[in-house]
Design brief:
Number of strands: 10
Radius of gyration: 20 Å
Shape: globular
Mean pLDDT: 95
Number of helices: 13
Largest sheet: 6 strands, antiparallel
Length: 335
């Protein structure tokens, strides 16, 4: 508790919410504090600057909260409720109010935890019908998502390379310190550079109209399979991670299914998506984007393991998870 910002310590108390709260729960990532309180969830951005992400000032955090609200309403209009504040009123913290704004956050409706896709996977309940339902949401989303010249350039090899090489730069200092081995790093980087050199492969995707304003973080932890499909927590903090080939989004979830030991369902998901979208070039870039996404998840594991404020799990847990992601990325690089 003592390592947490005072406003988070305040929010973990249950007597000041405008709705009934019996208990609170704190979930942390390397960029967010998430406070679960009764029927609602409050998400707050950490004041961090990783280069690719900059939440270092209150003004920036306000801006990105507003972006998060509006972008996520594309897929979850009834889940993302409002931008909220913690204020200082008469020397005391308050959730909302007219005093000095201490922090900005997002208020969301709480989803049923037993219907979260990660829980369904863990309990062995994920079916092809679930994947069909996800595809039925994603196909029209991508069809209507913004595209055009201002976005499609992010799908070309030069732009994709910026994201990929940035990951290698940001993880190089961690080589040999747990999670990432020299062999992992060299094999994955070599494969990635080889694919990126084939610029025509990426140009064909642009010409086919497959580069859109996507979700950017499409994996099972951001999906709830309740009475309908909720796909939430898209990338709001950097457009170049969200403006991408649709295959980078779909490949992320396919990689996630592989990671959880479900290769048959992963293959089914890809096959159904190709059939329904009519994307006959999809397989040309799938493995590359699966490798890229696995490496990103490994990087996040390393960053989280090295964040002293994250106390929800031991650092070794995140390092072990990172190691598994890097091994998966290396496997894709060999296929």
């Amino acid at each position: 508790m003592e390592n947490l910002p005072p406003y988070i310590q305040y929010l973990l108390k249950t007597n000041d919410y405008p709705h009934e709260v019996e208990k609170t729960e704190l979930i942390q990532t390397h960029i967010s504090f998430v406070v679960v309180a009764g029927d609602y969830v409050y998400k707050w951005k950490k004041p961090v600057d990783f280069g690719f992400l900059n939440f270092s000032t209150l003004e920036k955090r306000k801006y990105y909260c507003e972006r998060e609200l509006n972008l996520n309403r594309r897929l979850c209009p009834d889940l993302y409720l409002d931008v909220v504040t913690v204020n200082l009123v008469d020397g005391r913290y308050r959730l909302g109010g007219s005093g000095q704004v201490i922090e900005y956050g997002i208020k969301m409706a709480r989803m049923p935890q037993d219907r979260m896709m990660t829980r369904i996977i863990e309990s062995g309940r994920l079916t092809k019908a679930h994947l069909d339902a996800i595809i039925d949401v994603l196909i029209p989303f991508y069809q209507t998502a913004e595209g055009g010249s201002g976005i499609e350039e992010f799908g070309r090899a030069e732009s994709v390379a910026k994201n990929v090489l940035e990951n290698f730069d940001q993880t190089e200092a961690f080589i040999g310190k747990g999670g990432l081995s020299t062999e992992n790093f060299e094999k994955i980087k070599g494969y990635s550079l080889k694919v990126l050199a084939d610029t025509d492969r990426f140009d064909r995707r642009v010409a086919a109209g497959r580069v859109r304003d996507c979700h950017g973080d499409l994996h099972s932890a951001n999906i709830c399979l309740a009475d309908k499909v909720f796909i939430f927590d898209c990338i709001e903090f950097n457009e170049r991670f969200r403006y991408s080939d649709v295959a980078a989004d779909i490949g992320f979830l396919a990689m996630d299914l592989d990671f959880h030991g479900l290769p048959e369902l992963s293959s089914y998901f890809i096959g159904r998506f190709i059939a329904k979208s009519g994307d006959d070039q999809f397989m040309e870039v799938l493995n590359f984007y699966k490798c890229y996404r696995a490496y990103v998840r490994g990087k996040i594991g390393l960053l989280t393991a090295n964040d002293p404020s994250v106390v929800s799990e031991p650092a070794q847990t995140y390092l072990e998870q990172a190691r598994k992601y890097f091994q998966l990325a290396e496997r894709y690089s060999e296929e």
